[in-house]
Amino acid sequence: MFVVIFGRPGCPYCVRAKQIAEQLTEERDDFKFRYIDIHAEGISQADLEKTIGKPVSTVPQIFIDEQHIGGCSEFETYAKEHLGLYE
Q1: Which of 15, 21, 28, 63 could form a disulfide with 33 if both were Cys (CB 3.0 to 4.6 A apart)?
Q2: Could you give the CA distance from residue 49 to residue 30 in angstroms, rounded to a whole number?
Q3: Helices first, then strands: H and E counts in the chain
Q4: What pLDDT, in 10s, does the model give residues 43-70?
């Protein structure tokens, strides 16, 4: 499983999503992720919307195996239901 997290500096939800991904990386052999800082990479809101295929107004925007699942809340729910994430 490969997760891509599009986030920005100073965003608490981006930090939380990255923490979840780091925890899953430690706990599972089949989990890898990449965090993309949209500011450092020069990715605009329009670029994200084009990638996702619909309007977005918040970050993080998260993909699991190239499928968009939403933001931090959706990622956390998915991780708890399907990946054995424990708080």
Answers
A1: 21
A2: 29
A3: 4, 4
A4: 999 999 999 999 999 999 999 999 999 9
Residue 42 and residue 40: Cα distance in Å, rounded? 6
- Read off φ and ψ for residue 59, nearest 5 degrees: -125, 155
CA of residue 35 relative to chain centroid, distance: 7
Give 11-20 pLDDT, tens digit per residue: 999 999 999 9
User: Considering the entire predicted model, what is its pTM?
Assistant: 0.94
Residue 33's nearest CA partner among 45, 23, 25 is 25
d(CA 56, CA 62): 12
How many residues in total does the chain contain? 87
Q: Domain ranges for the chain, please list them.
A: 9-65
Structure tokens given for 28: 């599972």
